[in-house]
Design brief:
The chain is mostly helical and 210 residues long. The protein has seven helices and two strands. Helix 5 packs antiparallel against helix 6, helix 5 runs parallel beside helix 7 and helix 6 runs antiparallel to helix 7.
Length: 210
């Protein structure tokens, strides 16, 4: 996605997805809410924004976390903190902040939080090698894309990512089923071999006894 900056008294630019193959997920909505204020209160949000724009995502995430100590109920701060954490690949932190941002009374902020939650859950699932955990994370990602689309049915990026994750989830489930089938077949083969060996042993004993 093309990065955006959400400024006061200015209509935000339309998000645009970059062309991508079917297996590629569109990146998170890079949308920061510029927190207005007066006096010295502008310093910390401005520093966080500068860090983010400079690509210092971890520093930006830390700065937003520090601001949240003073305003723990500010859903815009949580959204910004989540966005910075996502870019820094701190997915656990991003999940917490986006989940809190969903409680915003602003429908647009809610929708974007659901969308970014979907992306965060997908990336979080990508990081684990445990198939069940991956499957559960991607199932949750789908639910969040659906929630984003309920709030904005015209969000093409959410629809695109939903379809991509759905396809990858189907492929993962097929792989899991194939692995399960192989394991069951191996167990059956082992049992058959064991039964045959036991039968051969009994036949050998009878010949020796005779």
């Amino acid at each position: 996605l093309i990065g955006e900056l959400f400024l006061p008294d200015r209509k935000p630019p339309k998000r645009a997805a970059v062309p991508a193959p079917a297996s590629t997920l569109a990146t998170a909505a890079v949308v920061l809410f510029w927190l207005c204020g007066s006096g010295s209160s502008l310093a910390s949000p401005a520093k966080a924004l500068r860090d983010y724009q400079a690509g210092h995502y971890k520093d930006a995430a830390n700065e937003y976390s520090r601001l949240l100590e003073k305003k723990p109920d500010d859903t815009r701060l949580h959204f910004n903190a989540g966005t910075a954490a996502y870019q820094a690949r701190e997915y656990d932190k991003a999940l917490k902040d986006f989940t809190t941002a969903i409680g915003s009374p602003n429908p647009d902020l809610q929708q974007r939080s659901y969308y970014n939650l979907g992306n965060t859950l997908y990336r979080s699932g990508e990081q684990t090698s445990e198939a069940q955990q991956k499957s559960e994370a991607w199932e949750q990602a789908l639910k969040n894309y659906e929630s984003a689309l309920k709030l904005n049915p015209k969000d093409g990026d959410a629809a695109f990512n939903r379809d991509v994750v759905k396809k990858r989830l189907e492929e993962l489930k097929k792989q899991q089923q194939q692995k399960k089938d192989n394991q069951q077949q191996n167990k059956k083969d082992d049992k058959d071999n064991k039964d045959k060996q036991q039968k051969d042993n009994r036949s050998e004993k009878r010949r020796v006894g005779k």
